[in-house]
Write a structure and sequence with these properties.
This protein has a four-stranded antiparallel beta sheet. It is about 50% helix and about 20% strand. It starts with a helix and ends with a strand. It is an alpha+beta fold and about 190 residues long. The protein is rod-shaped and about 135 Å long. The chain has two domains: about 80 residues; about 100 residues, Ribosomal protein S6/Translation elongation factor EF1B (Alpha-Beta Plaits, 2-Layer Sandwich), CATH 3.30.70.60.
């Protein structure tokens, strides 16, 4: 079969094309692989770029929101301060009694530290402990006066919980005392972070 001239020519042409195709494939294959790799890399980079643009836009929106609520953050941080500020609580309660025209007869705040020790390294900084400050308060006045005082107490910026309250007739012992006066006994709890 190899002695026939047509077979020889066809065989030579076929082997030539197979050789060219084989060497061409090995020469072109790395280039094709590089092209496919680069196309996949471009798609991945575009996806990452889109995600980064979304994150940048979200950060810009968050920054705008933060700038809008910045004045309110101070009020929020005042609700539970980082130190006891027991004198401020007493002053606020006294001022509230004066505004509501009630007579503050006694206020007792449990002992609290003046300075807070720096947190130890053993406690992670993400854990925030709240320490309670027990407060006992006696206030005299009419029902409307005491209702005004309680409304003011509930509207205070600093968080103070009412543990118990009791009403009783006022025992001021003063001759000019009105008979419709009531004594309000309150047990409150204030908080601070440590």
């Amino acid at each position: 079969m190899l002695k026939k001239p047509k077979t020889k020519q066809y065989s030579t042409v076929i082997f030539f094309f197979l050789t060219v195709a084989l060497f061409g494939w090995f020469a072109i294959k790395p280039t094709i692989q590089t092209i496919l790799y680069l196309q996949r890399e471009i798609v991945d980079k575009k996806a990452v770029n889109t995600q980064m643009d979304d994150k940048i836009n979200a950060l810009i929106e968050a920054q705008a929101i933060l700038e809008n609520i910045q004045p309110q953050l101070e009020v929020i941080s005042y609700t539970i301060p980082t130190n006891p500020q027991a004198v401020d609580i007493a002053r606020q309660l006294k001022n509230l009694a004066e505004v509501s025209q009630a007579s503050l007869s006694a206020i007792q705040i449990a002992s609290v530290p003046i300075l807070i020790a720096t947190p130890s390294a053993a406690i992670p900084s993400s854990i925030v402990k709240h320490t309670a400050i027990p407060i006992t308060l006696s206030i005299d006045g009419s029902y409307n006066t005491l209702a005004s005082f309680m409304s003011g107490l509930l509207a205070m910026q600093r968080i103070i919980t009412i543990d118990s309250l009791s009403f009783s007739p006022s025992k001021s012992g003063l001759p000019q005392a009105r008979t419709n006066e009531i004594r309000l006994q309150l047990k409150l709890t204030g908080y601070y972070k440590n």
